[in-house]
Amino acid sequence: MNAKPFHLNRTLLILIILLVVIAIWKPVALIYGFQRGGLYALIALPLALILGIIGILNLGHGDFLTLAMYIGYLLFENLKIDPLLSMVPLFFIFLALGMGIYMITIKYVLKSGELNQLILTFGISMVIIQMAELIWTTRPRNLYVSYASSSVSFLDFSVGTYEFLYPALAIGVLIALRLFLKKTKLGQAATAVGQNPRGAEIVGIDTNRVYFTVFSISIGILGIAAGVMLPRTSIFPLTGSPYTLKSFALVAMAGLGDLNGILIGGITLGIAEAVIQSIPGYGGWSDLVFFGVLLAVILTRAYRRSES
Amino acid sequence: MKNRTGLIIAVVGVLSVMISLPYYSGAYFLSVTMTILLNMTLAVSWDMMLRTGQLSFGIAGFFGIGSYVSIVAVSNFGVNNVVSIFLAAAFVAVIALALAFAILKLRGIYFAITTLALTMVFSVTIRNMPTLTGGSGGKVLYNTIFNGDTTKIYWLILTMALFTILLSIVFEKTRVHYAISSIRNDEVVAKSSGINVFKYLTVLFVITAMIQGVAGAIYTQQYGFAYPETAFSLDFLMLPMAMALVGGIYSTWGSVIGSVVLGLVAEYLRLVMPHGSKIIYGIIVILIILFLPKGIYGTLESKLRTTRNGARK
Amino acid sequence: MKRSAVLVVCLAVLFSVVFAAEPIKIGAVSPLGDITGKESTRAMQLAVKEINDAGGVLGRPLQLIIMDDEMKPASGAAAIDKLATVDKVDFFVGGMGSGVHLAEIPALKKYQKVTVWIGAADHNCENAVGADADWYFHLHPWDYQQGEGYGIAWTEIAKAYNIKIEKVFLAYEEGAFGTGSYTSYVDFFNQAKKGQGSWAAVMKQFVGASFKSASLGGGDYRAILNQAKSFNPDLFVWAGYDADAVPIVAQAKEVNFTPKLFVGAPPGWPANYGKNPLAENVILYGMWSPTLSDVSPAAKHFFDAYVKMYGEEPTGYFAPLGYINIYFLAEGIKKAGSLDKNAVIKALEKVEFKDTALGEPLKITPSKVVKHQGFKYQKILQWQNGKQQVIWPLDLATAKLVYPFSFKK
Prior knowledge:
The structure holds three protein chains of three kinds. Chain B contains 16 helices and two strands. By secondary structure, chain B is mainly alpha-helical. By secondary structure, chain C is of the alpha/beta class. Chain C has twelve helices and 14 strands. Chain C has a seven-stranded mixed β-sheet, sandwiched between helices. A five-stranded parallel β-sheet of chain C has the order 2-1-3-4-5, sandwiched between helices. In chain C, strands 11-12 form a two-stranded antiparallel ribbon. Classes of the chains: A mainly alpha, B mainly alpha, C alpha/beta.
């Protein structure tokens, strides 16, 4: 929708000024926010793909992430595969899982309305959570790799280096996705379907194949996210669930179809959260900031549109 | 004519069975029934809003506000328990009306996520106002409604459910219905044919929010406590939605049937398999969506219609 | 063929002799999907099996009927109704979360059956039950009792090991559980300023800060760890959930925060926590540890029996608590000589165990509101070489405190 989100407009200028102010005022919060925001964006990207192109709000999004973390944990415990390496097998395992889920469920609800799709994914989410509870119990699992808590000292602060992987991967995945959407035939078809599914079908695009590919790749990306999260995250049946809501919020904030906006939005929200958390006594309000920023963005955009 | 007397007899029969339920059913079944009626109320109210084409994720938010207004009114200001429920309705109505101007311009997922984000905003705000609301530590009500008399509480919940169903039917049967479904089908056409879209949306948004607030107030009065996590639990959003869909959306009876079926199934599964019953529950939801995409009532209705049409031929 | 038929008849006769008596029905309500509820009900079944194998109570076997509360208030309340009216149980046991329990209390009051509860630490529950509920027995320590106990513990430890404890920092999760801890610490701090209360000697300064628990979608503690670091506390306590346990130490290491005493107070611990190198010398609040087997015969008996029956070790204190739950009730019934409510209440008031599966004695005393409170304090344990060693109570100690805390290079 928004083809040139990087052009210098007023909003971006204000954003940059704000960042500079924060960098002077709370340098550490800026770094933490950048790291966490990268993670939010990384996880939100696949949700945005599914929502933007297939039009399905996948309520099982975070639960696929949970499942991927459990599998990654098993790979580490049984085969001693380092979590960062396990991103590769996890991507392929979840690509396959995405294909399977698409073939046996999603395919059949494409025509039956967005609400049916929503509740279908709610059912899938419930089954994943309950299965995890039954197999692994609610007791969290953690894996230990020494590099996950390494840090560098600067001024009188010691800052962790591992979490820089989050924004790095988010940017990497974003670039890869943009290349896929721009340069490959299937990707161009997917973009067309996302913008106008009926039109795309008339032009002769096989929408089913597009949906199938997009869904599987999206679930596959969750495997990558799970791999990078593993060393620093407790794994339990509800680990991923909160990310469904956060990702949905991010996608709505960026606007449907705007993948770059997700990265910018994720980092903005991450920094806003981190700044509030760093003010003693106000940590409890950080959620409000997250959703407050979201509401502000959605409402101003709606009003700007209705004015123009 | 004959059909109508039959209908009246059926309605009177069901009503008298429901009203007299506390006299012959055990406490357990009554308890399960109350939960079903609560979810039914939420499901029907959510569906009423959905008929305009607006997907609201705000059930839990209004439910939670209703809960807190009611419990704060009783325990901080000594308001009578029953009065507190009306107070909750009024308070939620005011909030919904104020919000209506800001958010009813939004459509599709933007409306949905905004109502969901508002739920979070409400919950965080209440958590951070400990002197009034008890904050995260929650609030306990020592003088519960009707002194905890289950029969009276049941009638209260039944009244709420029946009132919601009645309201929903009235909206289905009257002029409002045509306005609403034309908004859903094509807003531009609706506007050009002179329907005040915003007015109808506002009326429905405020009314359904009020119903959800009342449900929260009654729930809190029934169990006598409120925590931010339980009052704003997304269970109060997802379960009613699933019930409406399983029963069949865009109709009163769909939500009613869906909440009865899923409510009983969930309770039965809990009894027969203590571990993992929710997996089966989830699978049932998936299967119904896959094989009965119109929901139970929707499928029955269209089957009925085809056989009727066939008979006519 | 014939021989097996005879065997069946013999067995049938035997069974009818043993189980001729109507069983004593006990209704348990617990969150079966959660590890705490799963283990506590397993331990209850173990206790019931042991008691029935030994001939039951009053010549009658015990029958345990378990209902899942699904961690939902309405489901918990419906479970009480079902057990009381459909199964017609004689007693209620069980429990875990406070939020669910608050919804169960009106139902429990309706039936007024003798209830022995092992969950719900929130003092709101105590207020909701009220002082006149003489049928209500609560075994788990209330939140404020735990806080009092820690004050006593740190005072004794400071003396025994000649350590200075003055500055206390509490990091608490922002939900009901953590905030409850925080308010009780604030109370103790206000008392300590006047030289009163159990914390008077070990709390000259106190600061608290909240975080969002990983179990609720948070998991970034670096902001509060930095706050704690600049405060430089002698005693750092975090009150969160099991999911926070590993990430919070990992992030403490990352921001280079090494308090002399690093204490966690979650209700449960993650699997294999002891094996994690970051866990070494972390201190924890809890009621039980497998190492209690070394100092307590009752704890050893429980541990061995549980492992034998289920083929795995219990992971948290809700397992021994569930075991005690049944034995305590059974002892009361035995002493009362009948199922008469008042007789059982009187008998339970007098039950006294010198040693229990938790390694400590059990005796009923009044708490702030309710008349019948069981355990009062938690223990202080420390992870040492992958095992939870008991540091306090000093007379139950299984190891010496390792001090100060530091990260392995």
